[in-house]
Amino acid sequence: MEDENRTKEIVPVYKRLLAFPERFYLTDSFYSKVQDRLSYLVRKKGTLDYLSEVYLAARECYQALSTKLGEKPYLLGDSPSSADAVVYGHLAVHYYSVLPNNKLKIIMSSFPNLVRYVEAIRETYFASWSPAKGVFSPRKSPVKKPASSSPTKIPEKQPKAPYQLQVERQRMGFLVGCGLFVLGYIFFHRIQT
After folding, report:
1. What is the pLDDT of residues 118-152, one digit of tens each?
2. I want to staple 111 with a disulfide (CB 3.0 to 4.6 A). Which of 10, 35, 66, 154 is the partner?
3. What's the distance, Cα to Cα, between the start and end of the chain in Å?
């Protein structure tokens, strides 16, 4: 819902990742779905200011999680559970996202035990993780090599999975169908006139 984050970071990433026709309508669709999800805040409080209500709700959630966590290493004791996986998934996005306006990280930083929790889980379970080559990672900016360095070997193109091939065939069929429809429409109306 932060306009600066949406226009500078989120929409460009979706446009790079989505295929040709989808990139033009799915980004707006995602935005309207988020607005619909948050519309209860407008009805509940009678205000049009989504963001202050979202941040207030986030602070309340962080407070509840902080209280539940206390000084334990995991939410339910000394060993991780599926609750930890779900909570970590959400908190890590809030804490590690690199955005122009990262108020969720600032709010979360006021709960030191949640910060320790997220960092400990990342270090324990994801320390060796790095994104696959060619995959966009918002945490790592591409490093430009100096012009004097030797050329690197171009990686071989990986074969596409069956579901990727099926999606590409369906997309191409859709585009061809749309083109034939337009041509048929033009042809039919020329005959009538």
Report:
1. 999 999 998 887 654 544 444 444 444 444 444 55
2. 66
3. 50
